[in-house]
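F.,

This is the one I mentioned.
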């Protein structure tokens, strides 16, 4: 909890779900050089700003957090005051993350409403491995149609060739947040 004159109860002032949902919202955290680092809660971002560890770069329109003596705009993007050197995080290879990477879209037919499975582009019996570059999201129909064949043999083309997600893809897709204010910092424009 924050300490200091007028700020001791900055978060205690709200007990309703409406304000708690604001405090649990997502904020993009940038390194000092504007490189995307992570995503944190609004509450954590406000604490970092109050302690002087971060500055607000973008804010949510019209939303403020009030204490007895001060008002704090609700941040959407914050930048750290000091450069933090962190090794790149690797995204865990799992069925859930394969489906997220492919936007819950079958990589053969493009459907998004069917139940999804994970398909080996090169089947295991032909030497295919469990790696990011060999696994794609597929609907049950396409996975059964392809069977233990390569896409060429099954005459099924991939919509996108699979690849290992990098740090930016992790923040964009795996954090599950689509805030338009983040676009320029995530190199989406």
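My design for it:
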């Amino acid at each position: 909890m924050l300490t200091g004159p007028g700020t001791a109860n900055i978060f205690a002032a709200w007990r309703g779900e409406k304000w708690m949902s604001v405090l649990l919202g997502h904020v993009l955290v940038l390194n000092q050089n504007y490189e995307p680092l992570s995503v944190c809660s609004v509450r954590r971002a406000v604490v970092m700003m109050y302690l002087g560890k971060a500055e607000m770069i973008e804010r949510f329109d019209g939303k403020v957090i009030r204490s007895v003596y001060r008002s704090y705009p609700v941040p959407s993007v914050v930048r750290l005051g000091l450069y933090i050197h962190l090794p790149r995080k690797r995204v865990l290879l799992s069925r859930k993350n394969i489906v997220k990477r492919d936007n819950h879209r079958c990589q053969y037919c493009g459907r998004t409403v069917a139940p999804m499975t994970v398909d080996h582009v090169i089947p295991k019996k032909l030497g295919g491995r469990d790696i990011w570059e060999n696994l794609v999201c597929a609907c049950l129909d396409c996975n059964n149609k392809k069977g233990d064949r390569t896409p060429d043999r099954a005459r099924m083309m991939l919509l996108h060739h699979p690849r290992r997600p990098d740090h930016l893809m992790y923040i964009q897709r795996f954090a599950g947040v689509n805030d338009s204010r983040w676009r320029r910092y995530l190199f989406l424009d």
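Strands lie at 26-30, 36-41, 54-66, 71-80, 116-120, 135-139.

Talk soon.
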